Amino acid sequence: MIEGLGVYGSATGNMAKTKSAEAAMGKDAFLKLLVTQLENQDPLNPTDNTEFVAQLAQFSSLEGIQNLNTSLGDMKGSMNALQEFGSASLIGKNAKAESSSFVYGGAPRKLGFSLGSDASSATLIIREPSGKAVKEIELGQLKSGYNEAEWNGTNTGGTQANQGLYSFSVEAKGADSKAVDSKTFIKGPVTGVSLGGSEAIYIDGLEISRDLVTEIY
């Protein structure tokens, strides 16, 4: 049993301040404050043993929480490292990802898209980075779900387009002439991965966030 422990002056007030400050301070500062209380105790008015033991329990709890946070941080770092090594294994495989941008390398390029419902008419539009339309391709009637169309690399005048970055979209209408929702996708080999927490892969040299990747094959 612990006897003769108290805080000189307003012991209860100091105890309350300690409890409120505990959450904002580290274990070393909390222990230093506790020792200071003991050094300034009033022998004629000792602190109740139960209250002192409660303070020790709070200190132990604070230390445990800090150690747990450290362990969780180490675990997160290990998991991130494993995830990065796992991403590196994707190089050389093919991927499908949601994207409206693609890299044209000089050969005909297949472009994917999904429709929310059947379309009575649809148009594939290829654009330069500036937004200028390069080519419009009529696709006719299409079923809902995933579809693909090919661009041969020529512009509206029939001239071969320059290699580089382009974007595409699909404008579709249903039998009621209302617009049909569409999403665009690209497919290609994974040529690289980004490490260090950016969580991106490169498909045909184009950086794509990993949360946009829908298929690896």
SSE layout:
Blueprint: H1 11-22, H2 27-39, H3 49-88, E1 94-98, E2 101-104, E3 109-115, E4 121-127, E5 133-138, E6 145-151, E7 164-173, E8 179-180, E9 182-194, E10 200-203, E11 206-209, E12 213-216
Please describe what this structure looks like.
The protein is of the alpha+beta class. The chain has helices spanning 11-22, 27-39, 49-88; strands at 94-98, 101-104, 109-115, 121-127, 133-138, 145-151, 164-173, 179-180, 182-194, 200-203, 206-209, 213-216. It folds into 2 domains: 11-88; 94-216, Immunoglobulin-like (Sandwich), CATH 2.60.40.4070. Strands 1, 3, 6, 9, 10, 11 and 12 form a 7-stranded antiparallel sheet that branches. Helix 2 packs antiparallel against helix 3. The longest helix has 40 residues, at 49-88. The chain is elongated. The N and C termini lie far apart (69 Å). Mean pLDDT is 79; it is low at 1-24.
Brief sketch in words of this structure:
This protein is an alpha+beta fold. Helices cover 30% and strands 34% of the residues. The protein has helices at residues 11-22, 27-39, 49-88, and strands at 94-98, 101-104, 109-115, 121-127, 133-138, 145-151, 164-173, 179-180, 182-194, 200-203, 206-209, 213-216.
